[in-house]
C-alpha cells in the first residue's frame, strides 16, 4: 500500500477558528484507491516551516498533498515554498490566467487585480489542475518518482478538485492493490468488554486483514480492511472472518454494511417500506437534519416539526396544556404525546420525538439541564427513553441525543421484527 | 506567547473515519490563556512514531498535548510510549483504580476486566487528572520546564478534562501575557478585493497586533489579535485600529462582536425583540439546528417545520396545490408561500423558508440539482433569493444555504432598519 502524507497549511486551523475537514475527505478518497495516509502535519503559513515539513513528509510518504496557503492575501505562502523546495521558478501561465479571467467574469467581476494575476503563477515544471470553484489552481510536481500536490484550503474547492481531477490522475499513474473493507456496527457492548470477547478471533486474523475499533456515540464500529491482488478473493476472506465473528457478538450487531447511522436507517426504511417524521424540541432540528443528510431520504422522510416553545407543542402537536402543567414539559408523558401528535400531523408509520434541556440554562419548569426524554413510535408500538447528559456542550448534546434516537429506532426495527 | 504543540494519535483520523474536532477545541481554549498552537501532528498509534513525534514536538513547543491512544484495546499505545520517552515506568495507581471502580459501578458494571485494570496504570512521576466521563485518565509529566499531557481521544471526555482541569492547571502554572481579540464580520467583499482595500491599514498595524483572514461561506472574518501586559490598553489599541478600518469597508461590516452567524443573529434578535420561525424543505432541519445551536435561542426561536414531502407543504403550510403545479416546487413563488405559511403557523415576526434540490438526485419536477430559492419575511417585508450550488455535496449544501439565509437576514435587519 502506498503511503501518503497530508500537510494542512494555515493559521486558521492552528488558532482553533476552523475545523480541518479537508484531511478527512482526502484520506477517505485516497483509501479507496489504495493510498494509506500515514501522517498529517498541520503547520503555519511560513515558507521555512513549509519547506521543512515537505522534507519530513517526503521521508515517510510517496505522495504529499498540501491544502491551504494558496489564497491571494499576504499570509499565503505555499507556492513560494514549493518553488524553493523544488528549485523551480514561478512563471505566469497563460491557460490558468484565461481560466481565472473566465471565472471572475462569471462572478460579474471584469477587473483583475494585481493579486489575482499572481494566482496564475505556477511552478515551471508543474502540472495544473484548474479550479472551477475558486481562484487558486492546484499544482502537481513529480520528482524521483514521488509526487507533491498543492491544493487551496476551502473545502468547497478541495472536494471537487480531489474527486474529479486528482483521484483519476493518481489512479492512472499508480496501479494499486485492491482494498476491501467492511464495517460491523456493534451496540450496547462497552469497548473493553467487546475487545475481551473477540480477542482470540482478532489474534487469528490473517496478516492481510486488519481490524480497527471506532467508537462513536455509544456504538462501536469494527472495521475490517483486507488488502490483496484479487477483489473476489478478498471478499470471500472477509465473509469467512465475519461469519466466525458473528456468533460471538450476534445480539449486538445492528449492521454489517452501512457506515453511518443515517445510512443504516435508510437501508432499513427503504427495505421495510416505512415512512418517518420527527417532532423535536431540545434537538432543535438536528434529528431531521441527520435523517435528511443522506441522499434518498425523500423516499421515507415526509417532514419534521420543531416545537421549541411549549405553547407550540399544544397548538400544533395537540399536547394537552393540562399534561404539560402536571408532568412538566420535559417528561415521559409529553414525549409520548409529541410523537403521537407528529404521527398524526405527518401521517407516517414512524414518529420520533425529543423533549429536554440542552443547557446551559434550564427551562420555565426548572428541569435539570442535560435531561432528555424521547419517544419512538412505530405504527402502534411505542417506547420512551430517558437520557441524562449534563456534561455535554449544547451542540454535542443535540447531536448525541439525535444519534441515540436513530440508533434505538434501528434496534427496535430489528428486534421487534417490524 | 508560549508555544503549544498538539499530537493527535490514532488511525481513525488518518483513515478518514473521524474528523479531528479535539484540536480545534484545545487550540481555542489554549489561545484564551496565552498559548499559541504552532503545529499539530496527526500520527498513527505506534510506539516508535509517538516517541519520535514527542521529540519533534518538544523541539518547537513548551507544552505538548496528545489526544488518543489511551483506550483499553490493543491498538492504544500512548502510555507506553510516554513511559519510554520519559525513562519512566508504569505503576498501578490506587486512587485512579478507585476512581475507575466508582465510574464503572455508576454504569452498572461491577466487574473490572484485566484491561480495565491496566487503565489505572500511570507514569510514576506523572500527575493525574481523573476522567469523569470515561475510563482513561489524563496524565501530566514535567521535564526541564516543559510539560507533556496525554488525554483520551473521545471529544466528550476531552472537553471537560481540558476546560475544568487542564486549563486551570496551566493558568496557575504559567503567568501569561494578556491576549485580546476582536472579530469583524465582512460580507459581499471578495477576499482579494478586501485585501487590496485595507492593505495600507494592515501594513500600519503596530507589531503587537496581528490580522488574519478567515473566509467562511461567503463571509470573511477579520480577526485582530493584540498581545501585551495590560488588558485595558490592549482594548484601547484595538478600538483605535478598528475605528480606522471602519470607514474603508463600512457598508460591508455586519458585526464587530459576534463570531458565528448564529451568535450575531442572537444578539440582533434579542436587542430588537423579534421572534423567528423556519419553514424548511431542502435544508432538512439544518436551518433550525443552526439557530438553536446557541444558548438563549429559546427567547426568540418559537419553532420550525420541515415539509420535505411536497404534499406536506400544501397540508401544513397552506401552499396551494395549483401554485406548486404551475410554478414547480422549487420556485420563487413556493418559497414565498412557505415563509407566509410558516409565519402564520408559528405566529412569529420573522419567517424563513427554503425550497431546493440538494442532490445528488432531482425531485419529481426534475428541478436542477443545486438550485434553491429562499424567502425571508420580517413582519410585512419580504425578499426572495436564489442560489445555484451544483458543486456542493449534500451536507455542505444544506449547511451553506442555511448559513447564507441567516447572513442575508442579518443584512436585512441592519440595512432595512427593522
Automatic annotation (TrEMBL), chains A, B:
Organism from which the protein derives: Cloacibacterium rupense
Domain MoaB/Mog: 5-173
InterPro entries: CinA, CinA-like_C, CinA_C, Competence-induced_CinA, MoaB/Mog-like_dom_sf, MoaB/Mog_dom
Protein name (Swiss-Prot/TrEMBL): CinA-like protein
PANTHER family the record matches: NICOTINAMIDE-NUCLEOTIDE AMIDOHYDROLASE PNCC, NMN AMIDOHYDROLASE-LIKE PROTEIN YFAY
Family matches, as HAMAP family: CinA_B
Record family assignment: Belongs to the CinA family.
